[in-house]
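Narrative summary of target 7.
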Amino acid sequence: MSMIRPSSSLSASPCCPSCGYRLPENARIRELETQVQLLSEKVSATKYDTSELRPPPSPTPPTSRISSFLFSSSSSSSTTTTTAAAPPTPPPDELAKERHLRLKAEEQLQQVTAELEDLSASLFQSANEMVAEERRARSKLEERVATLEKRDLEKRERLGVLERAVDRISRVREILGTLPAGERT
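Modeled conformation, tokenized:
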């Protein structure tokens, strides 16, 4: 018989590793897993075939990492059979009630898992959008820096031309200043 037990990784980290905030999703998942475990133990305690209590197998296996982790945490336990007289049958309404509670707990677990997957997807989408926006801003800044560097280089070249022209003018003045007064015309 298969029994779902709370996974050790969920119970080991009940809070956010970066800020320490206690995450309500983990607590809810643990609560639902505990309910499923209690219902499974009740069924095993009655020593009956639980195949009629199990929901029909799903046509597709879990596809997300979170779902596969949650659903793979089930472990099998051995059931003891007695060769003595057949055990008495429990009242049908009790079995129906347990079946209903188990299905409800599994449904809640699936809802929480789906919500957790949606939140994870939206978180990654937001992070990707932030990274893309940062890359666009960085690209724009790099273009601006390249434009300013180009202008700076052009201005330095013009300044060099002007400095050389001033040097030539200074040399011409020196030459003209050394000539006698009659030769300057």
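Helices lie at 8-12, 24-45, 65-72, 92-178.
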